[in-house]
Specification:
The protein is mainly alpha-helical. It has a domain of 110 residues. The protein is 57% helix and 0% strand. The chain is built from 7 helices and no strands. The N and C termini lie far apart (99 Å).
């Protein structure tokens, strides 16, 4: 009988490390094209919706940048007028202020604002901004009507509902709904509840007297 010691640990696969043969077999199982390239796996509905929203986000950011440009240009034009009026040296860095130029910049800003209002919103935050602008009546100095803006907002909401980027749990019974979840210790609802319970305890007649008042009453009896 041979006394050679065999190291069994050398044949054991390391924990967390996949063998090269397993990787090759997994890769070979993937479908390939006629040229030998791997086929792309079909994207999920959530991934497709994310891409569609990303396309809308790029267009939205472009229109938002143009609106901000003319808004800040309008503010800068007003500041140049003020420093030149007071004879400050900063005013010499710019051409002489022309009041007519202000109205030109203002018209371009309102045009850029109207374009952004009709640009498809990529998320609910943009929809909220549109609703706030409509409520403030910012469209009164443009060619946009209330009906047209409301129709654009309704189209945005309909698109966002039809293309969610997150799957809500609880609709199929696999997870708790958001309204049924218990808030954590740091949640404001839990904090308000603790504050209410504390006020209730202090308002009870049997707990109205604190320890300091009890000590004072005992000293008066002595």
């Amino acid at each position: 009988m041979s006394s050679e010691i065999i190291q069994l640990s050398a044949f054991r696969p390391k924990f967390g490390v996949k063998s090269r043969n397993a990787t090759l077999s997994t890769a070979s199982d993937r479908p390939r094209t006629a040229a030998g390239y791997f086929l792309k796996e079909p994207a999920t509905d959530t991934c497709k919706n994310q891409r569609l929203r990303g396309d809308r986000r790029d267009v939205w950011r472009e229109a938002d940048a143009v609106m901000d440009y003319w808004y800040l240009s309008m503010k800068l034009d007003g500041v140049i007028s003020r420093v030149q009026k007071h004879g400050r040296p900063e005013g010499e860095l710019h051409p002489q202020y022309d009041p007519q130029e202000h109205w030109t910049i203002l018209a371009k800003y309102r045009k850029a604002w109207a374009r952004l209002m009709l640009t498809p919103a990529p998320d609910m935050r943009s929809v909220t901004w549109k609703r706030a602008q409509l409520k403030a009546g910012s469209h009164k100095h443009t060619d946009l009507t209330t009906v047209r803006i409301e129709r654009a907002i309704a189209d945005d909401v309909e698109f966002l509902k039809a293309h969610p980027t997150r799957q809500s749990r609880g609709a199929d019974g696999k997870g708790p709904r958001m309204e049924n979840r218990v808030p954590g210790p740091g949640h404001p609802v839990r904090g308000a509840e603790r504050h209410r319970q504390k006020r209730t305890r202090l308002a009870r007649p049997d707990q109205a007297r604190t320890s300091c008042s009890l000590r004072r009453s005992l000293r008066a009896q002595l």
